Amino acid sequence: MFPPTAVAVYPEPPHGSPRNIVGLTVAEVDTRGPTVLVRGHDQPGGAPGLAACITVDAATELRVAPGSRVWFSVKAQEVALHPAPHQHASS
User: Fold this and answer.
1) Residues 87, 50, 86, CA angle at the centre, nearest 5°?
2) What would the pLDDT profile of 35-46 be if each residue is shown by its tens digit?
3) At 34, phi and psi to the nearest 5?
């Protein structure tokens, strides 16, 4: 898990140190004051799409809009791993 504020957004795959990168198609762009929440399409299985929180200036520069293709990058130290919830077998 990681917060949307830990995600950097790029117009092309980033080069250099970022290792946790994923390309996605933008599903939603929601301006929230000085920031913009950029969300990808829902994941297979119904999980919500990945999200990034960027500045309005960055969103304008990147021209993010529903349908645009971007790359998300998260630094490894920003990721927290949690065990999956235990599911009880149905009777």
Assistant:
1) 10
2) 999 999 877 777
3) -80, 0
